[in-house]
Amino acid sequence: MMRIAVTGSSGLIGSALVNHLRSLGHEVRRFVRREPQAADEISWDPERKLIDVRTIEGLDGIIHLAGASIAARRWSRSYKQLIRSSRIDSTQLLVEALQKTASPPRFFLCASAIGYFGDRGEEVLTEASPRGKGFLAAVVEEWETTARHAEKYGVRVVNLRFGQVLARQGGVVASLLPVFRLGLGGPIGQGLAWWSWILLEDVCRAVEFLLDHAEIRGPVNITSPNPVRNRDFTKAFAKAIHRPAVLRVPTLLLKLLFGQLAQEVLLASARVIPVRLQESGFSFAYADIDKAFAKIFETVL
């Protein structure tokens, strides 16, 4: 049994992960940005750089998932600054807190993203692939570098490079479902861009695996071993809810509506393979996109 603290515990990944870790018998505490109202809560304020170092004494590790949503709105200059600061500043605060503890936690698992790779077309991407171009790639590189500073204090750092996380209750699935239910879903342009995805259940299992394998450090791609083209993603989505998916979304329209967000996220092609998980022996429960969508919609449509 481990004592683990989680930031971003109310988000899509965080809430599922807290429940998963508790089901395994771990003691989980949640960082909150207010006065604690329950015994399992730890108060912190990244914007004001406030955290009580005593609250992380005795922890086995921290899983840091907090950060402003990448796709919540069009990227204005101020929102891009929020995307960056919500990641870098909060990570820096935690690293500084680790430095001040008498006995730092053994591990620091910090969220990251496959946005590190940028738009790479047909290139097969692994953890060893170099950084791509663009705003998001630069933010992710700085994010990962900031987290790895914790290694100076004897802490094992893992950068969790999440792909598109699929779940009924949030993320891309919840955003697209109303459109697909109306029969208005379809591929973006020719649908040739590679989408790297992973089912939420496999995210939780992958994090569990990383907790149990202390030899794994550095960047780890948290994606299915079978990325799919956007057209195949939309086909599988539509099939799972018994709707057509024949209407194409013009790329020009997305660029006009979402600007840089469309170029770096919605239209980007990233064919990412989770080599480190595979080589370490992790087994995906839902590696196939059709099976993943079948799992998502097996109980509710």
The succession of helices and strands, N to C, reads EHEEEEHEEHEEHEEHEEHHHEHH
Per the CATH scheme, the topology name is Rossmann fold
Q: Report the sheet-strand fraction.
A: 15-25%
Count of DSSP strands: 14
- Rg value: 19 Å
CATH superfamily: NAD(P)-binding Rossmann-like Domain
Which architecture per CATH? 3-Layer(aba) Sandwich
Helicity level, as a percent range? Answer: 25-40%
Q: State the end-to-end CA separation.
A: 37 Å
Morphology call = globular
Neighbour order of strands in the largest sheet: 4-3-2-1-5-6-8-12
Number of helices: 10
Average of the residue pLDDT scores = 95
- Structural class comes to alpha/beta
By CATH reckoning, the class would read Alpha Beta
Largest sheet: 8 strands, mixed
Number of domains: 1
**Unreliable runs:** none
Describe the structure.
The chain is α/β, with parallel strands linked by helices. The protein has a single domain (3-296), classed as NAD(P)-binding Rossmann-like Domain (Rossmann fold, 3-Layer(aba) Sandwich). It is built from ten helices and 14 strands. An eight-stranded mixed sheet has the order 4-3-2-1-5-6-8-12, sandwiched between helices. Helix 1 (12-23) packs across helix 5 (200-212) and helix 6 (230-240) packs parallel to helix 10.
In short:
The protein is an alpha/beta fold. Helices cover 38% and strands 19% of the residues.
How do the strands and helices of this protein lay out in sequence?
Blueprint: E1 3-7, H1 12-23, E2 27-32, E3 41-45, E4 50-51, E5 61-64, H2 77-100, E6 107-113, E7 124-125, H3 135-148, E8 156-162, E9 164-167, H4 171-181, E10 194-195, E11 197-199, H5 200-212, E12 218-222, E13 228-229, H6 230-240, H7 251-258, H8 260-266, E14 271-272, H9 275-280, H10 289-296
Parallel strand pairs: 1-2, 1-5, 2-3, 5-6, 6-8, 7-14, 8-12, 9-11
Antiparallel strand pairs: 3-4, 10-13
Helix pairs in contact: 1-5, 2-3, 6-10, 7-8
